[in-house]
């Protein structure tokens, strides 16, 4: 028996030795005596001349014409207009001269909410005898033929339940928990209708926060102070004379707090997928809510009685914003009248499509760089989202041409996603990540999101960890629109900067800590390094919380071409910038991601946490020392990996060493995932970037747990603070271990 085993071992060793020798001589010597061609391909780095060629070929007029085509008709998710944009994307990506390697549609059956076009939602003021004294506009005022398109959807709150609410009106500011708490100290809110303004709390939260106080229904509007710098007249101040929102403009939106299809949490919404009962859906309002324009809000708020609301609650109307009695002033024409909401929304499961495209990688086709933008809009959607779609189409036209002409193929595969039903809760991208969870988790290098590409003239960048190498290279290479001899980088530093301990004054980069666009599922659910790129406006010169035509019938090609980006040069700059990022992520031998900068973020978060929490936690015998040690360990490990990269001649190293380092960089964000950290937050698993209600620039789970414990004083809530400290410490320590030499 022993003899047989020895013979087997020796035979295996002989075969292995022969294989090594054959492999050695096969690699080092081809028939011509030269090394095989794939060796050169494996060691190839990003081609700077190719990037220069790409930058030179991005055409602002092409982007302009893309946008003109995309905004011809309204294209709300699953409508005929949406299908028209699906076909347009497929045609472009399947073009034999400028298209991608492959393009297809990916379909999901998703739960959406719509108004009834035959029975429009109504908001009225009614007297005790039910006489209608005032009716809010059901349709925005027309200034161009765009607003007269029969497919323009009536302003509504998606996922608001159908129902009828009637009661005395009260003013509840932004509908935050603290707003209702303060209001309830003055007024018995039971049986009332609240009017709130956008901002401060999420759309759905304005109604969800109201319900426990007995509020029957909620109105929401955009105050001119928050969007128009106080301007209100469409005679000469607002659109069509400027970018400001006209009085009848209404922001539509999805009024839910979760992202992804609501009936299939954590499952892709395919036709045969299990669906939870609709009554088990969480994160949506249980009382009716309806958006209105500020012209109607003015009529209602300026007639309210009772005492004046706090100064922080006052807006742009030329009247005092009162709490309401509840109800209207005794001297008002509306005295003793109620506000009535008649909401006829309905829900249905409909087929929604993502359009997908791919350029296959030549060396590492199993490593993906994903670029995405949603396609659906509330109305014409020139800025949101078609500015991003028009940029993506131009970017893929230039790259597709290079591929079809045989002039270039990326090292890693590029995947392009035109997501469907984003406006209803990031549905298309979320379903994609759920369907391909395993593959994307294992293979995705990074996700680049360009949603609202342009709504100003300054670069705005948000990301998980800061790939400084890539940021500064792309920003320095691209000319700033309309500024001679100024790069995007120089303009970026001028507009938004910070001081780095290591690098001095550098551009300020925001963080992807919420679920504002399609990066959410990639960051929070999959732990994929992500960035969101746009051109924004100078927020020191306006109070506008977003571009004023956002989600209204005025977000049209006319609006974009006259007031946002005449000449489309900012769109061109974003296309060049985003394309530069994409090429570098796909073609660089070593991924241009910087771990030491991630360490700087963790140190900033730690410093804030120490200042805010350490004293009280020490008094409760809860130590922050494990968190301090974890952050220090991460800094040391990040510096080690950066040093290895900096001092190695990786072009002449074994490809396996390069692959190992790239995997360490690629998988770093995955190390911060904890599926049990946030049981009350759907699909949030990233302990650094999860959303937070506490509003503190520090670790989100810790901040929220501390706020709850401080408010309640209960020992079980302080235990939760300790729990989140442990979650953080172990996640950061674990992430540090992924950066050191493999054992």
UniProtKB/TrEMBL annotation:
Pfam families listed in its UniProt record: PA (PF02225), Peptidase_M28 (PF04389), TFR_dimer (PF04253)
Domain PA: 166-254
Gene Ontology molecular function, alphabetical: aminopeptidase activity; carboxypeptidase activity; metal ion binding; metallopeptidase activity
Every Peptidase M28 domain range: 354-561
Major location category of this protein: membrane
One of the protein's GO biological processes: proteolysis
Membrane association type: Single-pass type II membrane protein
Superkingdom, taxonomy of origin: Eukaryota
Signal peptide segment: none
Transmembrane segments: 7-27
One GO location term (cellular component): apical plasma membrane
Start and end residues of each Transferrin receptor-like dimerisation domain: 622-739
Places the protein is found: Apical cell membrane
Keyword annotations: Aminopeptidase, Calcium, Cell membrane, Disulfide bond, Glycoprotein, Hydrolase, Membrane, Metal-binding, Metalloprotease, Protease, Signal-anchor, Transmembrane, Transmembrane helix, Zinc
Record bears the keyword Hydrolase: yes
Cofactor(s) required, per the database record: Zn(2+)
PANTHER family the UniProt entry points to: AMINOPEPTIDASE NAALADL1, N-ACETYLATED-ALPHA-LINKED ACIDIC DIPEPTIDASE
Known function: Aminopeptidase with broad substrate specificity. Has lower activity with substrates that have Asp or Glu in the P2' position, or Pro in the P3' position. Lacks activity with substrates that have both Pro in the P3' position and Asp or Glu in the P2' position. Lacks carboxypeptidase activity. Lacks dipeptidyl-peptidase IV type activity.
Subunit structure of this chain's protein: Homodimer.
Family per record: Belongs to the peptidase M28 family. M28B subfamily.
Protein name: Aminopeptidase NAALADL1
Organism: Scophthalmus maximus
The encoding gene: naaladl1
């Amino acid at each position: 028996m022993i003899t047989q085993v020895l013979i087997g071992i020796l035979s295996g060793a002989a075969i292995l030795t022969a294989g090594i020798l054959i492999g050695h001589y096969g690699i080092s010597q081809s028939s011509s005596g030269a090394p095989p061609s794939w060796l050169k391909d494996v060691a190839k780095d990003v081609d700077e001349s190719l990037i220069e060629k790409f930058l030179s070929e991005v055409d602002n007029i092409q982007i302009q014409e893309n946008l003109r085509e995309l905004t011809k008709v309204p294209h709300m998710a699953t409508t005929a207009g949406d299908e028209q944009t699906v076909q347009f994307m497929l045609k472009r990506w399947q073009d034999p001269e400028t298209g991608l390697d492959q393009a297809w549609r990916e379909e999901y059956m998703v739960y959406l909410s719509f108004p009834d076009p035959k029975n429009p939602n109504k908001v009225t003021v009614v007297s005790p005898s039910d006489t209608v004294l005032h009716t809010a506009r059901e349709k925005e005022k027309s200034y161009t033929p765009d607003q007269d398109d029969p497919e323009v959807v009536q302003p509504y709150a998606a996922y608001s339940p159908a129902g009828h609410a009637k009661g005395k009106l009260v003013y509840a500011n932004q509908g935050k928990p603290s707003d209702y708490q303060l209001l309830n100290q003055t007024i018995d809110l039971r049986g009332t209708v609240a009017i709130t303004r956008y901002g401060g709390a999420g759309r759905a939260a304005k109604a969800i926060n109201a319900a426990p106080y007995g509020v029957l229904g909620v109105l929401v509007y955009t105050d001119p102070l928050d969007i128009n710098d106080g301007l209100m007249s469409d005679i000469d101040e607002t659109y069509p004379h400027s970018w400001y929102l006209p009085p009848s403009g209404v922001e539509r939106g999805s009024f839910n707090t979760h992202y992804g299809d609501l009936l299939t949490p954590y499952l892709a919404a395919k036709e045969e997928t299990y669906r939870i009962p609709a009554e088990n859906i969480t994160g949506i309002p249980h009382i009716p809510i309806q958006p209105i324009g500020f012209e109607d809000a003015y009529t209602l708020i300026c007639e309210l009685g009772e005492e004046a609301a706090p100064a922080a609650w006052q807006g742009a109307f030329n009247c005092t914003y009162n709490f309401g009695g509840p109800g209207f002033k005794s001297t008002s024409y509306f005295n003793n009248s109620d506000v009535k909401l008649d909401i006829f929304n309905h829900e249905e499961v409909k087929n929604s499509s993502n359009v997908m495209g791919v350029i296959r990688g030549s060396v590492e086709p199993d490593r993906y760089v994903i670029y995405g933008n949603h396609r659906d809009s509330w109305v014409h959607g020139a800025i949101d989202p078609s500015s991003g779609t028009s940029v993506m189409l131009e970017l893929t036209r230039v790259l597709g041409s290079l591929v079809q002409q045989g002039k270039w193929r990326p090292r890693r595969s590029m995947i392009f996603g035109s997501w469907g039903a984003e406006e209803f809760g990031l549905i298309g991208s979320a379903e994609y990540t759920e369907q391909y969870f395993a593959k994307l988790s294992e293979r995705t290098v990074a996700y680049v999101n360009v949603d609202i590409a342009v709504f100003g003239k300054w670069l705005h960048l948000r990301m998980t960890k800061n790939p400084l190498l890539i940021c500064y290279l792309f920003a320095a290479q691209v000319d700033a629109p309309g500024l001679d001899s100024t790069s995007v980088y120089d303009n970026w530093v001028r507009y938004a900067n910070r001081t780095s301990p290591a690098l001095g004054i550098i551009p300020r980069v925001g963080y992807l800590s919420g679920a504002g666009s399609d990066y959410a599922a990639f960051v929070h659910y999959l732990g994929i390094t992500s960035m969101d790129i746009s051109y924004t406006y100078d927020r020191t010169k306006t109070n506008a919380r977003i571009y004023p035509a956002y989600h209204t019938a005025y977000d049209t090609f006319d609006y974009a071409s006259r007031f946002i980006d005449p000449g489309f040069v900012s769109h061109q700059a974003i296309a060049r910038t985003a394309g530069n990022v994409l090429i570098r992520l796909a073609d660089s031998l070593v991924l241009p991601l910087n771990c030491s900068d991630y360490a700087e973020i963790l140190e900033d978060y730690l410093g804030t946490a120490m200042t805010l929490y350490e004293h009280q936690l020490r008094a409760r015998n809860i130590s922050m020392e494990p968190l301090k040690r974890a952050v220090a360990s991460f800094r040391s490990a990040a510096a080690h990996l950066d040093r290895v990269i900096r001092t190695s001649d990786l072009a002449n190293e074994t490809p396996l060493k390069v692959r190992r380092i790239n995997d360490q960089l690629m998988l770093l964000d995955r190390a911060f995932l904890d599926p049990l950290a946030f049981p009350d937050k759907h699909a949030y698993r990233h302990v650094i970037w999860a959303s937070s209600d506490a509003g503190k620039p520090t670790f989100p789970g810790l901040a929220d747990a501390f706020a709850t414990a401080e408010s309640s004083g209960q020992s079980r809530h302080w235990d939760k603070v300790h729990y989140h400290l442990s979650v953080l410490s172990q996640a950061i320590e674990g992430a540090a271990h992924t950066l050191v030499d493999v054992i």
